[in-house]
Amino acid sequence: MKHLPHKTIERLSQYRRALLICAAKGKAHIFSHEIAKIQHITPVQVRRDIMLIGYTGTLRKGYNVQELIDLIGDIIDTKEGLNVAIVGIGNLGRAMINYFNGKRTKLSIVAAFDSNPDKVERAFSGVKCYHIDQMGEIIKNENISIGIITVPAGAAPEITEKLVNSGIKGILNFTPKPVNVPSRIYLEEYDMITSLEKIAFFVKTHA
Amino acid sequence: MKHLPHKTIERLSQYRRALLICAAKGKAHIFSHEIAKIQHITPVQVRRDIMLIGYTGTLRKGYNVQELIDLIGDIIDTKEGLNVAIVGIGNLGRAMINYFNGKRTKLSIVAAFDSNPDKVERAFSGVKCYHIDQMGEIIKNENISIGIITVPAGAAPEITEKLVNSGIKGILNFTPKPVNVPSRIYLEEYDMITSLEKIAFFVKTHA
DNA sequence: TACCCTTTGTTAAATTATTAACAATTTTCT
DNA sequence: AGAAAATTGTTAATAATTTAACAAAGGGTA
């Protein structure tokens, strides 16, 4: 299989989540237009994405829900799963942990870090919190490959550097401050304010 | 001015934030490559975005920081500002409120809603929480145009419907469940799990 | 002055992403 | 059997986005 576009990867993740819900309801097959409806996109796009991963449905029944779930899993997940750490146990950090607890996934948050002594050595929704200075050690011992940054913006560069030095492979930065990482590390950044300002712009102009 | 691309709007919001920091440091002028460095993009893209909004820098000094901030404000903000409500006072909802409190911006979170009686009538970081049943009334009285959904996924469709019926203009949905809105309403959705799974994929394939 | 360096503004090209179009296939109905 | 309807898979077309290329301008310097 050749390159899968970034956007396709994102949609596959979302298809899988929708499919898992369908599977739980006992639905065995699904049509492209049904998936499309759930995700507010076009059926063509769904078929195209599915084509790109080399799966084939049947003409009258559509796609086999479980097969598609499994195939997307083969593409996105690693067999053993990946371990995740969260840095910064504020409201956002706790939200992430809670968010994850329900889901069954190949990604597990296995450690948290914070600089506040009141938080270290405590567990948050089952995830133990360590002091930031222990980051290098824990990340290596626990084989953690992804770090989520949910600290205040000012601390982001320093935390990023620590994560990079600890041998992390991917980073999700939720602070509004863009951070720099070596090109071997995959970086994703999301900024809530930007999302809101974008909505504001379109509300304003569409009015 | 003609259509500004979505991506340009997102970047303008980010440029402005970077520029505000520069201005606070007393920097009066900035080059496209400096902005680009901060945002990890190319200088050409910065110049192109700035061209699209009709601003012009000077050849030897670059762009005037304050002028650019003001112009981006003219584009993104409304003069009087927009009011925002947050629905669901869990960790994520509180994170959003805290996030906003520091920033000076034309968007203000003026109300929160929750179904938990222990939370209603309380204030969270200065934002008063009402019962969900009061949504229609409060949104009209407070002239709220944007709603942020931070409830558990299962409740998302019902909350969305209430927001729509209350006359909201834009929605930011943080639940993993895609919601349906009439086309007159601007909808933005963000799903943390998708972001993480995307990172996982690239960590896996880039290894 | 004449040349070099830097930076903007902008057009053109390339790339990426989405949408349209449609042949092929299977089922259902008459 | 033959026609009609629905759906997939795929190629072609379109649209959106990014990147490249480069002329023009200004300032420094020998």
Descriptive notes:
The structure is a homodimer of 207-residue chains. Helix content of chain A is 45%, strand content 19%. Chain A is α/β, with parallel strands linked by helices. The first copy, chain A, has two domains: 6-75, Winged helix-like DNA-binding domain superfamily/Winged helix DNA-binding domain (Arc Repressor Mutant, subunit A, Orthogonal Bundle), CATH 1.10.10; 82-193, 3-Layer(aba) Sandwich (Rossmann fold), CATH 3.40.50. In chain A, the strands form two sheets. Chain A has a seven-stranded mixed beta sheet with strand order 5-6-4-3-7-8-9, with helices on both faces. The first copy, chain A, has a two-stranded antiparallel sheet with strand order 1-2. In chain A, helix 1 (6-24) packs across helix 4 (65-76) and helix 2 (32-39) crosses helix 3. The first copy, chain A, binds a DNA duplex (30 and 30 nucleotides) through residues 5-8, 31-33, 41-45, 47-48, 50-51, 56-63.
- Second-tier CATH architecture of the largest domain in chain A: 3-Layer(aba) Sandwich
Strand tally of chain A: 9
Oligomer: homodimer
Give me the secondary-structure category of chain A: alpha/beta
Please provide the ordered H/E string of secondary-structure elements of chain A: HEHHEHEHEEEHEHEEH
Quick gist of this model?
2 copies of one chain form a homodimer. The first copy, chain A, is of the alpha/beta class.
